[in-house]
Amino acid sequence: MTPVCPFVKASRPDDGSSRKPGDCPIKHGAEHEGGGRAKKEYSGESATVSPKCPFGYDSQTFKLGPLSCMICQALLFDCSKCVPCSHVYCKVCISRFKDCPLCGADVEKIEADTDLQSVVDRFIDGHARIKRSHVDMDKEGEVSENKKVIYEDVSLERGAFLVQQAMRAFRAQNVESAKSRLGLCAEDIRGRIETVGNTSDLCSQLGAVLGMLGDCCRAVGDAGSAVTYFEESVEFLSKLSAADLEITHTLSVSLNKIGDLKYYDGDLEATRSYYMRSLNVRRDAIERHPSVPSQTLDVAVSLAKVADADRSVGNEDAARDGFHEAIKILESLTLKPEEAGLEQRRLSVLEFLKNQLTENV
């Protein structure tokens, strides 16, 4: 699962970067405090308030709240209570323990806590989607019925929040929890696409989320569902500009993952086809960005994959040509001293390629 949040580039509705120089912050919902009493100036018929989660969950910061599992550190999923201590965790998380991680008490049995899970589900359903009228105060602090506060549409913020929770759960091997959160995120984005169309941002976000869902399915051995998600991810990412390196990298990785799954399934022709598509995406990327060393490494890896597929179908000459081309690319790649991580990867891939040539001599 990729650690990069697909919503990282999306500016929040209250992002200060959208202000023009000299703009009064009051227009953007900022408040001035003074005289022991908060006051707010309004210049129009309505005001816009940036939504804040009452529990403090924020996609930009790490937070453990009252609805979190203390083991996976994500929101509770399949909420279960330890008996007799009554501490609550995700069922998958606590099932690995004989003693309560919080108090050390013996876990005699585990009981479902459907009431708390219902609270968590309602919280997720409403998180970052508040949009309603609200009574507010005028300049003198008096209640005014004539002004309306509109809570901003923060669907992107909600997406970042869901992805954050999914990534925490996935890292803790709570895959079903991760799938649930990512499924909600994908559903939200699909709803937005139906409303505003296939915009670049939405296609990018949905492609990344679908790829994460593919990783979840692959982690539990559901290869068929994984391929379906990866193929849908490829479909959306292919609609985007090839000039974006992050997009092309995610697209090529999804294609390689489908190729890997086809290989494990014994479909070698399909394996080579997907590896080749990934290679072509990466060749196009390096033509657009020849000075990016990570792109050169990606091309070498794809050449190795295609060559390995050629060898598997009995085309040894094509395989050796591919391995030699990859070696040539890596040996000509010069990295800076601060790119030690890339250098380590380069040497590792180079060693693998040379071993492939010597093994079949």
Automatic annotation (TrEMBL):
Disordered, as annotated region: 1-43
GO terms for cellular component: cytoplasm
Domain RING-type: 69-103
Record field: transmembrane: none
Keywords for this protein: Metal-binding, Zinc, Zinc-finger
SUPFAM superfamilies for the chain: RING/U-box, TPR-like
Keyword Heme: no
A molecular-function term among this protein's GO annotations: ubiquitin protein ligase activity
Tree of life domain: Eukaryota
GO biological process: protein ubiquitination
Gene3D superfamilies with a match to the protein in the record: Tetratricopeptide repeat domain (1.25.40.10), Zinc/RING finger domain, C3HC4 (zinc finger) (3.30.40.10)
InterPro entries tied to this protein: TPR-like_helical_dom_sf (IPR011990), Znf_RING (IPR001841), Znf_RING/FYVE/PHD (IPR013083), Znf_RING_CS (IPR017907)
Compositional bias per record (Basic and acidic residues), positions renumbered to this chain: 11-43
The protein's name: RING FINGER PROTEIN 41 151
Native species: Salix koriyanagi
